[in-house]
Amino acid sequence: MYTKNFVNPCPDWATALLNGFSQVLLLRNPLCGLCCLLAILMTAPSLVGGALLGALAGLLTAQRRGYERADRQAGLYSYNGVLIGILISAVLPWSAILPPLIIAAGGLSSMLTHQWRKRGGKLLTAYTAPFVLLGWATLMLAEPGAATYVEADPLYALLRGVGQIFLLDKPMGGLLIVIGMYFANPYAATWAVIGSMLGGAVALLAGEGQAVWMGLYGFNAALAALAFSRQGERAWVTLLAIVIALLLQPLFNLLPVAGLTAPFVVACWLMHLGTHLTQPNQRSGVHRLHS
């Protein structure tokens, strides 16, 4: 349903905003969202304002444009705003134009998400694609960041792999996010941890070194694991999604800007396409058996 009237506000704005944070992880749980917000506040306080501003801009834009209230309450129009707000705050220097830029990007992410939900169908689910597109535009405006060195520590790398979903590079941030995921969905949380671990292990075998310890090979695998485990799907399906995301990551590393969550998004699209192509064959096989 679509109306331009400023009507039908969310019944609980705080819950809607927290759901926006948890929807970054493809989960709907205010307590999980609160843990994610705390992770940002405790490990990267300079990014909190951008995250909240982006989420609020996405939610207000969705309300102003009359998008479905249940979807707004679920955080489906806020989570891309959370991510783009964090990214803009992280890579662009502070200036008076930064808050309006975050508001504009958060609002645009909401509109892009709505169009994706209308036109993408089941094959091209939005996921974090609006954030990726807006994020690439942001990174083209940013100065290259200095390389960060961290000590080799497998446990910290695993936690950073989860934390990097929110662009956090402190293990404590990853730990708080993991705790939040366990509040929302213990099965999916376990798979997210497995995804981060597998991503780091594969990259370590490939000799990536510092990128592994920074968690840069964990977050796309963790998101792919979340996408295909939150409904209790079969283990091999989740593993396949993780593998595809890991195979795609070196390709996106060839871009002049960071790939962000693009490997996760494209991996999910390929999984959906594979399901779409195999289902007619399965149905025809069943028909032949019964004919």
From TrEMBL:
Keywords: Cell membrane, Membrane, Transmembrane, Transmembrane helix. One of its GO terms (molecular function) is urea transmembrane transporter activity. One of its GO terms (cellular component) is plasma membrane. InterPro entries: Ammonium/urea_transptr, Urea_transporter. The chain crosses the membrane at residues 31-57, 77-103, 124-142, 211-228, 235-252. It holds the Pfam family UT. It is found in: Cell membrane. The record marks 261 as: Important for channel permeability. Its main location: membrane. Belongs to the urea transporter family. This is Urea transporter. It comes from Pseudomonas mosselii. The lineage of its organism: Bacteria, Pseudomonadati, Pseudomonadota, Gammaproteobacteria, Pseudomonadales.
